[in-house]
Write a structure and sequence with these properties.
The protein is mainly α and 959 residues long. Keywords: ATP-binding, Nucleotide-binding. This is AAA family ATPase.
Length: 959
């Protein structure tokens, strides 16, 4: 019986023989190319794999209600394609779309994602205009001046979500490690955002080759070797049993690989059919067992079949017409492939000829001499055109060839113009390999690294910069390469090396190009800070500004910003703030990417100088621009800068921003931003009293970053100290906080706004009997207050003096001082902490009536914030002060019930965006926005957008 989906296309099950891909009788298999098929009743007979089946079954069975993604990985022949076929057979009632990465097509931008999206072209018109143009441009359906890769990602998500609304959709992508880089980027993006869609994405990749963060982005399982019992089960299907000594040898050779089992069983059957003695010692020689089995199959083919098979392996497209032409040019015909097809080496269907398994490609090509292989590529080049011809010519080049290199450069430039940076990068790199002139090779490797870095693969960028440096003899080009290499090392979590490289390069070119040296010194400031070298950061920032003197525009502003930020971190707050405010005025109305980055850095610097409200407004504008332009590369940085401001009083917003920043940082593979996000979330956990969550965040940070980000280590220890104090363990708190304070001194950090746990150290010292330690902390805060004029050290110093007070009058006086500071500066949690210690001190000095008001105010604030242990402590003090009725009715605001992503959606809608606009802004699908919005309405008890806006405004989420 044939099922007919909504679009009227019919799909039928296909019966296939048992082979290495499907160890069973019935399954739905992809046609010759990546086409859509409708699943039908049937099954793939699997051996073992119960845990993997459960994962796949759960994902597919939930498809009518929600979606998700899964990555299957393992060695060649381990059964990944089998699991995909099992998913297809399981997906009864769903529409199934198959795509496959092909090694030879990995250089063609968006090749795999085109196979995924083009069947749903009728949904393109439903996308926001910017996304539709980007998607059509990347698929070469329209001419686009420059396509934004993240608009392509968001558009692909929108198309698949719309298709899923029409009919549940199961997308299966085999050999994703051979998908082109641009397609991998889109698949990774989509995979993280399918929870609310009726779309399931199952991908298979060879173990160890899940590049570009796909493994970290989605649920992932590794297919392990079969057990001995499972191996024997599979061999029994091949008519072998335990009594057969040769079969026992197969089990030992296969090492649990099902493909090896099947192939050797077939080889044994052929050997016996010929009457030969099976299994001499050569079968046990070390080497890739699967390849060896196939080499034996190749050797028995007729010579003409082996020659024809060579063109199938070398071809970058499986389409039949090209294969027919190239075989005819060599005096061969497609009939010469019949023997290969009968042996199960190739499959011919629906106008295409494919190798049965990807590992056959290197086996077939490795069987012929290098000269012959180059001839095959040259023949293919004469019968093709465009990018395909260029890559055949590149494969055919025995050595440097400038004419081919120039063609690769032209194609890479076109890919860059389409926004396919990840696809352009390999073109530049291959062009460099074919460049006769070392200077050209250096420049092209630099271009490859540039596109790799801005395409999201910083690791490739760093490696190709290394290669470019080995060719470069131009000191200015070398400086540019070092600049890019330093940026890549920074984001890869090696700021110490980045700082060293950038400063070294700056000194090299300082005498010949001061402006370029200024740029390099400026770029070294951030990694120096991350590496805990704030004093050095101040020195190189000063040199950066000195060399930029006389320059104009963006470079002078960048130098000024780096110097002012370093001053603020190093303690010269007043001068740094003045410079930053002046530079902010200069940047008003400037919207280019570089200007936006400068504005973001100014805002973050101002947030360290008591200008939090201004910084938040500026960051709101910057983030809105990044979302609007589909330019999320710096979004993690901007979100974390805003979250740092929000952490003083608006915890739900801070958590929402930090959570989104973490998601982006992991997606980009930015180790430094990942660590920054984790320690920021750890501090939020600590403030709320979630000790276990705080510990887990810090453990994640240490797993990600180890000891490579010294500048973040003190924040991690500070979070643990605050969490321990909230949990009632002052000994542990003191240990952590003293370590954090020592790290701050070691790195040169003296801005107390970045050390909000310092007052906790005074309290931990006092509670463990170390009064002199608490006095020393109070004295440090007083000195910082005088040196910087900042509100936070003034308020914290007053709190410490309350803790140290020896009389009720002294405690009340210092509490009044703290209250005056808090009245001028919003620090909601810190204000409540001060009132708590003030009330405790007054009650201790037998002034219960005076203690009640600050204690009641503290208890209410803690309850609203969700700071549970602090609220419990305050409530106990309220009762001890003689307030007999417990304080009730001060529940956290309803927005505290929202998840971080629900809050971001509510925020966007509350600011007046439509569902479509919110989806584009947050890089989500419209359906995801609608699903989140439904939950937001229910949790907040509102029924309209205007009600939502008012609710958010009351909670301080929107203006």
């Amino acid at each position: 019986m044939t099922d007919v989906p909504a679009d009227g296309a019919a799909y039928e099950p296909v019966r296939v023989p048992e082979d290495s891909g499907a160890h069973g009788a019935y399954c739905v298999v992809p046609p010759g190319g990546p086409e859509e098929v409708k699943s039908a009743p049937g099954s793939v007979r699997l051996v073992g794999r119960r845990a993997e089946q459960d994962l796949v079954n759960g994902l597919v069975d939930d498809l009518p209600r929600r979606g998700g993604a899964l990555l299957l990985s393992g060695e060649p022949g381990i059964g990944k394609t089998t699991m995909l076929r099992h998913a297809a057979a399981r997906g009864e009632g769903a529409r199934v779309l198959w795509a496959c990465g092909v090694e030879s097509e990995a250089v063609l931008p968006y090749a795999v994602i085109a196979d995924v999206l083009l069947p749903f072209r009728h949904h393109f018109d439903e996308l926001p205009s910017a996304q539709r143009r980007a998607v059509e441009g990347c698929l070469a359906l329209t001419d686009v001046a420059k396509s934004n890769p993240y608009a392509v990602c968001a558009g692909a998500l929108g198309v698949l979500a719309a298709a899923g609304e029409e009919w549940p959709l199961l997308v299966l992508v085999d050999d994703v490690h051979w998908a082109d880089p641009s397609s991998r980027q889109v698949l990774q993006f989509v995979a993280r955002r399918l929870a609310t869609e009726r779309v399931a994405l199952v991908m298979a990749a060879r173990g160890g080759q899940e590049e570009d963060g796909i493994r970290e982005s989605v649920p992932h399982t590794v297919l392990r070797p079969l057990t001995d019992d499972e191996c024997w089960t599979l061999l029994r299907r091949q008519a072998l049993d335990r009594a057969d000594r040769a079969a026992d040898r197969i089990v030992r050779l296969a090492n649990g690989n099902p493909l090896v089992l099947v192939e050797y069983a077939a080889a044994l059957a052929r050997t016996r059919a010929c009457g030969a003695v099976p299994w001499d010692d050569s079968w046990e020689a070390p080497g890739p067992l699967v390849e060896r089995a196939w080499r034996g199959m190749l050797r028995v083919l007729p010579a003409r079949s082996r020659e024809a098979l060579l063109y199938v392996a070398a071809g970058r497209t499986p389409q039949w017409p090209l294969l027919q032409r190239v075989l005819a040019s060599e005096g061969l015909t497609t009939a010469d492939l019949d023997a290969a097809e009968a042996a199960g080496l190739v499959r011919m269907r629906d106008g295409a000829c494919e190798l049965r398994h990807p590992v056959l490609r290197p086996v077939v090509l490795g069987q012929c001499a290098t000269v012959r292989r180059l001839e095959v590529y040259r023949r293919l080049a004469t019968l093709t055109s465009g990018e395909l011809q260029t890559w055949y010519l590149a494969a055919a080049a025995p050595g440097p060839d400038e004419s081919v290199a120039a063609r690769l450069v032209s194609d890479a430039r076109q890919a860059r113009q389409r926004g396919a940076l990840a696809a352009a990068a390999p073109g530049w790199r291959r062009a460099a390999e074919l460049s006769p002139d070392p200077a050209d090779a250096a420049r092209r490797l630099f271009e490859a690294a540039h596109d790799a870095f801005y395409g999201g693969t910083a690791r490739d960028a760093a490696e190709w910069c290394e290669q470019a440096l080995s060719h470069s003899r131009d000191p200015l080009l070398t400086a540019d390469i070092e600049f890019l290499r330093g940026q890549a090392c920074t984001w890869l979590g090696d700021p110490g090396r980045a700082h060293q490289l950038l400063v070294g390069a700056a000194r090299t070119v300082e005498s010949v190009d001061p402006a370029r040296a200024s740029q390099l010194y400026g770029a070294a400031v951030v990694p120096a800070t991350m590496d805990g070298r704030i004093r050095e950061a101040c020195d190189i920032a000063a040199r950066c500004e000195e060399l930029a003197d006389g320059t104009r525009g963006i470079q002078r502003r960048q130098a000024g910003v780096m110097r002012a930020r370093a001053q603020v971190l190093g303690g010269d707050v007043r001068e740094g703030r003045s410079t930053l405010l002046a530079l902010l005025e200069e940047t008003r109305g400037r919207t280019g990417p570089e200007e936006r980055q400068v504005t973001m850095e100014i805002a973050q610097g101002l947030s360290w100088t008591d200008e939090g409200d201004l910084a938040r407004r500026v960051l709101d504008t910057v983030i809105e621009g990044m979302r609007r332009d589909h330019s999320p590369a710096l979004l993690p940085y901007a979100l974390l800068a805003r979250g740092q401001v929000e952490m003083w009083s608006r915890w739900p917003l801070a958590r929402a921003d930090a959570t989104e920043a973490l998601r982006w940082a992991e997606e980009f593979g930015h180790l430094a931003m990942t660590g920054y996000a984790l320690v920021q979330l750890a501090r939020l956990d600590a403030l709320r009293g979630d000790f276990a969550d705080c510990q887990e965040r810090v453990a994640q940070y240490e797993r990600w970053c180890g000891g490579r980000l010294r500048g973040l280590a003190l924040f991690a220890r500070g979070a643990l100290g605050t969490a321990a104090l909230a949990a009632g363990d002052p000994e542990a708190a003191r240990t952590h906080l003293e370590a954090a304070f020592a790290l701050a001194e070691e790195t040169g950090l003296v801005n107390p706004c970045l050390m909000p746990w310092v007052a906790d150290l005074a309290e931990a010292c006092l509670r463990t009997g170390a009064r002199e330690g608490a006095v020393a902390v109070a004295d440090w805060l007083r000195e910082r207050e005088a040196a910087t004029g900042l509100a936070w050290p003034a308020a914290a110093h007053a709190r410490c003096r309350v803790l140290l007070a020896r009389s009720a009058e002294e405690a009340a006086d210092w509490l009044a001082v703290a209250e005056r500071v808090h009245a001028d500066k919003e620090m909601t949690f810190e204000s409540a902490r001060t009132r708590l210690v003030g009330g405790e001190a007054l009650r201790r000095f037998r002034r219960p009536s005076a203690a009640r008001e600050p204690l009641l105010l503290a208890q209410r604030t803690f309850t609203v914030l969700g700071a549970v242990p602090w609220a419990v402590r305050a409530e106990a003090e309220v009762a001890a002060a003689g307030h007999r009725s417990a304080v009730h009715g001060n529940e956290p605001p309803a927005v505290a019930l929202l998840t971080p992503q629900e809050l971001q959606v509510a925020r966007a809608i509350g600011e007046g965006l439509s569902n479509v606009e919110a989806a584009a802004s947050l890089f989500l699908s419209r359906k995801t926005i609608e699903a989140h919005l439904t939950r937001v309405y229910r949790k907040l008890g509102v029924r309209s957008r205007s009600d939502l806006a008012r609710c958010l405004a009351r909670a301080g989420v929107t203006g």
